[in-house]
Every structure is written in structure tokens, then in C-alpha cells.
Amino acid sequence: MLPHALAALSLEGALDPAQLQAWLQQWGYGVIFGAMLLENAGLPLPGETVTLLGGYAAGSGHLQGLGVMAAAASGAILGDNLGYWVGRRAGWGLILRVGRLLRQSPEQLERLREQFLRHANASVLMGRFVAVLRVVAGPMAGAVGMPYRRFLLCNTAGAVLWATTMVSLAWLGGRWIPFSQMVGGVVNVGLGALLLLVVIVLVPKLFSALEQRQLERQAPDSLQDPAQPKPPAP
After folding, report:
1. Separation in Å, CA 122 to CA 91, 153, 177
2. Neighbours of 60 (CB within 10 A)
3. DSSP string of 103-129?
4. How far apart are CA 29 and CA 199, in angstroms?
5. Whole-number pLDDT of residue 195
6. Beta carbons within 10 angstroms of residue 91's beta carbon
7. Cα(21)–Cα(13) distance, integer angstroms
8. For 168-189, how does the pLDDT look when each residue is reduced to its tens digit (9 = 90+)?
9. Biggest alpha carbon distance in the chain?
10. Which of the listed residues 35, 58, 91, 99 has the most CB atoms within 10 Å of its CB?
């Protein structure tokens, strides 16, 4: 059943190329729509990967390109709207609570809020092409009070542009590369990109923490009066 397939679309299952290929061939547009809806509603599902694979499937003749675009765009729009109304109802307090979990200070979040309000249209429209922003743009827009009609217009335009671009590029790949090989390639590239992102983000933080700890250890020595002789060693 389709709901069972979506429920099983965890990170572990999503990285199984054979399983992804079987779901796309069996459920097609429903898997694409559901994965995009749930990912954009905030659940950790590989909606973008499934959409790309749907485009490859269309290029190799398994699905229709316009159907894949429609499923991806409509799922993204509905998921973002769910996120918007969650943010609208919960308010800025939701962002503050999530920020505390991510170790972001209220001052940092306030700067983020000001930047988002200053560039709200572009953030919602083009944020579709940025993995993290794609998920948080809806709740953020609702929490900061972006007018719903403006959000809906920008979000719809961004989702249609994103789906058309991604599916078209994947469709071209599907014209020359066998579908089964493309499934494994997209999954492997996606996992490699995820690991690279983790390294890029965590390594500077690790060096910064080590440097801060070293400075804290040196602080007592620097506070000692240089004119005062050091106590003799025992």
C-alpha cells in the first residue's frame, strides 16, 4: 500500500536503490507527491531525491514528465502551506524553541528574522533550491507574519520553477542512462553530498571549540601580574 511505502521511506530505506526503484515503478506519482509533501512539512524524507528519480523514470519511459512535475510541485506547495500555518499558529516562540535546540541565541534568531522579512519574497521563491531553507521557509514565513497571499504566490511560483527545472534536467539524464543505474548514482551522490556538508559544517566548529578551550587554559597565566614573581617550584 502507498501509505505503508511512505511510512517506510526512512533514511535507511531511502538509501536502498532497489527499493526506491520498486516504489517508483509501483506507485509512481503518489510516492513523489507524498515524499515532497512530508519533507516540506518538516519530516526527514528524501523528497528531492525521489523527485530526481521520478524525472529519470520519465526520461526512460517509465513515467510522464508532466505528471512528475505536477506531483512534485503540488506536494511541495501543500507541505509548505502546512508548515506556514504551523508557524503562524505557534508564532515566533516556536522558532525560539527550535533555536535553543540548535544552540542559536535569541539575538541570532532576531537577526535572522529581520533578514527574512527584508528578503521574504526571494527567500520563499528561491529558497526552494536550498535544501535547509526549503524546509524551514514555510514555518518561518508564518511565524514572522508574512501575509498569506504573498506567501502562497511566491511559494507556488518557486515550487513550479523548482519542479520544472529538476525534473527537466533529470529527464535528460534518463534519456541516455538506464533507470536502474541512475537510481544508484543519485542515491550515492546524495549520500556523499550529505557527508561532505556534515564535514564542512562540523570541522570549523570543532577547531573553534579547541581554540576556545586553549584560550581558556591560557587565561589564568595572562591574568597574573608580570611584576609579581612566580612562586618557587616545590
Report:
1. 21, 12, 35
2. 18
3. T--HHHHHHHHHHHHHTHHHHHHHGGG
4. 34
5. 45
6. 13
7. 11
8. 888 877 676 665 555 555 555 5
9. 84
10. 35
- Note the pLDDT tens digit of each residue in 115-135: 888 888 888 988 888 766 777
Q: pLDDT per residue over 187-218, tens digit each? A: 555 544 444 444 554 566 666 777 777 777 77
For residue 212, the one-letter residue type is Q
Predicted confidence band of residue 70 (pLDDT cuts 50, 70, 90):
very high
* SS3 label, residue 91: coil
Q: How far is it, in rounded angstroms, from Cα 89 to Cα 19?
A: 37
CA angle 166, 72, 167 (to 5 degrees): 25
Cβ atoms of residues 187 and 49 within 8 Å? yes
Please report how many Cα atoms fall inside a 13 Å half-sphere around the Cα of residue 107, on the Cβ side. 0
Any idea which residue has 528578503 for its cell? 119
Q: Judge contact between 19 and 11, C-beta under 8 A.
A: no
